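Appendix B. Extra example for self-study. Work through it before the problem class; the solution is given directly after the inputs so you can check yourself.
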Amino acid sequence: MTTAQLPPTLPQVSWSRRHLLGLEELSAEEIRTALQCSAYFARCSASGEPPRPLLAGKTVANLFFEDSTRTRSSFSLAARRLGGEVLDFHASASSLSKGETILDTARTIEAMNVDALVVRHRTPGAPHLLAQNLQASVINAGDGPHEHPTQALLDMLTIQQHRGRIEGLTVALVGDIAHSRTARSNIWGLLRLGAHVILCGPATLVSRRWEALGVEVSYSLDEILPRCDVLNLLRIQFERQQARPFPSVREYAHLYAMNRQRLQRARPDVLIMAPGPINRGVEITADVADGSHSVILRQVTNGVAVRMAVLWLCLCVAAGESG
Amino acid sequence: MTTAQLPPTLPQVSWSRRHLLGLEELSAEEIRTALQCSAYFARCSASGEPPRPLLAGKTVANLFFEDSTRTRSSFSLAARRLGGEVLDFHASASSLSKGETILDTARTIEAMNVDALVVRHRTPGAPHLLAQNLQASVINAGDGPHEHPTQALLDMLTIQQHRGRIEGLTVALVGDIAHSRTARSNIWGLLRLGAHVILCGPATLVSRRWEALGVEVSYSLDEILPRCDVLNLLRIQFERQQARPFPSVREYAHLYAMNRQRLQRARPDVLIMAPGPINRGVEITADVADGSHSVILRQVTNGVAVRMAVLWLCLCVAAGESG
Amino acid sequence: MTTAQLPPTLPQVSWSRRHLLGLEELSAEEIRTALQCSAYFARCSASGEPPRPLLAGKTVANLFFEDSTRTRSSFSLAARRLGGEVLDFHASASSLSKGETILDTARTIEAMNVDALVVRHRTPGAPHLLAQNLQASVINAGDGPHEHPTQALLDMLTIQQHRGRIEGLTVALVGDIAHSRTARSNIWGLLRLGAHVILCGPATLVSRRWEALGVEVSYSLDEILPRCDVLNLLRIQFERQQARPFPSVREYAHLYAMNRQRLQRARPDVLIMAPGPINRGVEITADVADGSHSVILRQVTNGVAVRMAVLWLCLCVAAGESG
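Solution. Structure tokens for the complete assembly:
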């Protein structure tokens, strides 16, 4: 399936989930549905035609307990471009500082007739707790190092747009697997759709335990490079690390940065992806980030389409309003 | 009057005030009008039908000099759901840090063709100062410990929805009366509509001087409990207190927290209210907050309806645009 | 040309610039076009009629790396009143703290199908760097002490509304010329339209080098006062100064503040302007700021109209969508 084959009309899909908490819980069929709808909204945006106001009358609250620019903005634009209202909740200015629990904060927001809460929290499972206790939809926008499902969906949509498929491709996630919710969500989604997944990075950041899931673990980017269709270069999340897991940034870059030399040894049609924000010179050099293999900005564009799809599926389709 | 008896059409009301600064200045008739309109908007929201864009072409600025999540969000949603534009002004990022006076800040915002300023400020009377000097409507969203009129209106709307009336009911405001603008606004509004009001709390937080207004003052929750139709449990506002006005939180909770034991000695139809954010285990225990007598989340829902009503009355009806 | 002579219909203009980076680069004809459109939008707002949704389907991102209330709000209202979506980017909460470059941040925002970036940055030339690397329109909302073109346009629109012309008028910019982007943009714009420009202030804040451009430099407000049609009183930007450039605020006010005594020696139709936020008692006394010669709040009102015009010109007219 490619976006070009999709009809220009809103796809007829079935979807029963009110919440999107992670990709681990989704079936291959559900992931395909989410990608199909995402591709539709990506085509709408690319065509310049305004999308139908599918979220008119609905309110989406951004409930971010960790700072974010791109994810929050992406959800916000997605909801508003579909005609929804967006309520931005700034955790630092919030009642939490007055001793309120996260669940009371969420219930209060929900009580203002809010239809969906987009939640980012440093604690794994925080969105799940809310989902169990709210009538509103809960969309996980990142729960600590656990899951970040819309990020993985936009990564997969980008692969699908450029390769026409995901099944059978070899996708390497390179870098800080240990702290990366993006990695976890990608692993579940890619495996479900039949990709071969390689986790690559320093031993301190990549555990052999992942092999039990059916992924390959490698400590040498140079070794796996020629086999990869896609390289997804994760950020070194300095802000999540207590002790530095490698001797120096320079050594990390020496072993794992995607640079011109490595690109020459990669497949000629390799896709270079990164969830961003990128550290130029650390996980990727400037020429590769800006080069013809890079689809980093396409990922950002797709992010809005994916969030449109997820909000529409969870708020409308799951409620029987298929548009 | 109950909401069920209201017609589904926008009520025909008369209202002449451009500003809502407090309930002390309102007549019983004006308060009834505000509640009648609030009940209408509450019905609209509950029905799921989009309300008419009564504020289309109007701009409402949130001018909060104190942090707030729920009140700011509630006003914001109220204005936007009626088709208005909302301008969010963050005091910390503002020109105030460059030496500008509050009045110059407000006049500057007004000069951008802003129709209403929703103002929260720690100084009692700050919204009144602005109202005297602006053409725009000024809505008091809390001025220090003085007034918080929309909070009291939403409390009264909630009582009315559940009891069908306010006249003749016994309503206790429990806790930190001294620092509470919610208490002050409730006192004016409830007395005007003929309720019996009891102020209950430690002597350091409840002054006998209130008796001159016609309210009852009590230092024992257990004593008044069997007589109350409504208990409105105010937050202990630790952030407003210089010296701690009681020996310990534990002693406060022992004497004044609403818990299961006290609930059993209350009237079987007692309403448990709290302006939030609640301190679970301080003024209210978790089981009571989440129990069948609690209407705390209904208060939040009603808050949006009350703010729709107040904005419509002050911006449209007072200007001769009755919809 | 005055606003009264403008037709009530959207003017037919030609405009080819996607970006507005400064007034230095604009021709007299371009400045006149921008002012003509601004006057049109000012008339729309004054008439109370909602403007046509010329920016429907377009997204404007505010990318402010320096705090701002009025300029950000003004752009935000301008875009939304024309039907555009606004994305507010808070630099402090952004990916910049994660090591992202400003260009990567801007490209990421652009990739979300954003049509214009309104940029404020402390580094002169930062918006120009972005303009060279983005497809989206870049509007300079202040780059350090360099340019602030929409501020100068709103100043000129205000003069034109009150005097009917700019050519031949004597306009004094008083105060902190050295640190003022408002001064620089005004100089370019006013000279281009044929005004006589006087820069007036302490020698530490006004350089004789400006004379090479064809402006007059004076260190005595009292000396130039009787000749001026317009006095634009710049803020002393204490926050931009390392060493204090004059002995005391009191001495500055003694020599350069516009007060009642000076007003009596000024031309009877002198216009008193200030970009704000004003320091009452420093560059202007309260009675003059609030007096009949002051057009300070009109400047704020015109600011929204100018930003509507600039967004429409750069996003629509330059792209061949003339409305």
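Self-check: Chain B has two domains: 3-147+300-319, 149-295. If your reasoning did not lead you there, revisit section 3.
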